[in-house]
Amino acid sequence: MTKSVYFCLLLISLCIFESDAAAWFNRNTKIVTKCEGSNCQKYCDIDNRLILVGTTLKTDQCEQITCDADFSSSYYSCGIAVDKNGCTLTPDYSFKYPECCNKMKCVT
After folding, report:
1. Does the model's pTM come out above 0.85?
2. Most CB atoms within 10 A, among 7, 27, 53, 76?
């Protein structure tokens, strides 16, 4: 598809849904060092999940959590989406972030 077709699809979707993505950052992430022999690596401890520094975890709750190089953590999720008729939409949790946001199901 051409860029103009993508742009038109984006405009149409903005007319149908009002949505806010969610993003938040934690500068006080707990850091854990794990060693195997002389090889030590640092991890962010986020809700008892160890994420290697510089990597990203995509959860089954339609969120993305990154352990950043400065030992902070970044969280991203779909946010809340409501169509013009007031129908609340929820992510399709059978997909990982961000695809789960693109597979919205209507729940009334």
Report:
1. no
2. 76
